[in-house]
Amino acid sequence: MTALPSVLRAPADAPHVLDRCRALVRPALTEAVGRMHPWVGEMAAYSFGWCEVGGRPAAAPAGKGVRQALAVLGAEAAGAPGRAGVPAAVAVELVHTFSLLHDDIMDGDAARRRRPTVWKAYGTGPAVLAGDALFALAVETLAAEPGGAQAVRALSAALGDLVHGQADDLLFAARPWTGPRRVRPQEYRTMAEHKTGALLGSAAALGALLGGAAPPVVAALDRAGRHLGIAFQIVDDVLGIWGDPAVTGKPVHGDLRERKKTYPVLAALDSGDRAVRRLATLLDDGEDPEEAAALIEAAGGRSAAMAEARRHLSAVDVALAGVVLETGAAHDLRALLEYLVRRDV
Predict the structure, then answer these.
(1) CB 192 within 8 Å of CB 266
(2) Mean pLDDT, to the nearest integer, of 111-117?
(3) S-S: 98 plus which of 65, 66, 131, 257, CB 3.0-4.6 Å?
């Protein structure tokens, strides 16, 4: 496996930042879920890895809590205590989980973090209901805060972008690999900003907003999160083709077997390389993913993807450098942002 360039390697203290923020947010997140209908709350707790089907306590694999950490750090970057960003952290984590429940249904994914997805464990209808309840709870959580109306408007705008990105992603699947209707890399970047970046940017921006930050700081954190989302998604795409299964938990060449229109594939098809026709045939047939991966790399798809990820990481730095942030929080924030695109590919 080729080592990832140092610009995409995470500082060693990033996991400690995540641990600290999760510990701060967990009591409020638990309290919020506890206000839900018991059955719906059980599904929410299952999705967080807190329980098994039926409610028996569990210590299942859970997410890293990146979005909630961004909200806490957004408040601290504004000079407020981290607890000021906790309601934003809870709201964004609830919205993120809601989106995963619905995404798993749309994509037909039967497993997440090595466990059955909520719709497989409880049924499609109950999973939709749990997702709706999580979104309603997120709005309620933000609305209860001072300045909650502005925060709810900001979260709603981010959710609108997320839906826009998800719609584009679903529509991409029906478009051809080549020809005038093919998906261009620029379209993919826009989709990734909406689907992945909007909620990352919203997390940091909402934390700063509840922490009393000035509008330029809120806007800068939102921009940084959006660029980060594009970089994160593109690196994830590289992993989906060339990543080590022992690290990613996914089969090698998995995205090619599923014929996903990811950034390295689109960049290769847009390169004008003489092997594009052969690559498109392989992708159409879903055959010989090893040859397809080799053709994508030879056409420059992998290198173009990594270069694009670096460009967006540089844009993150530009956004953060343009405003005054509390020094310690700014350090933790940069560590966390780099951690999100740390991969061994």
Answers:
(1) no
(2) 89
(3) 131
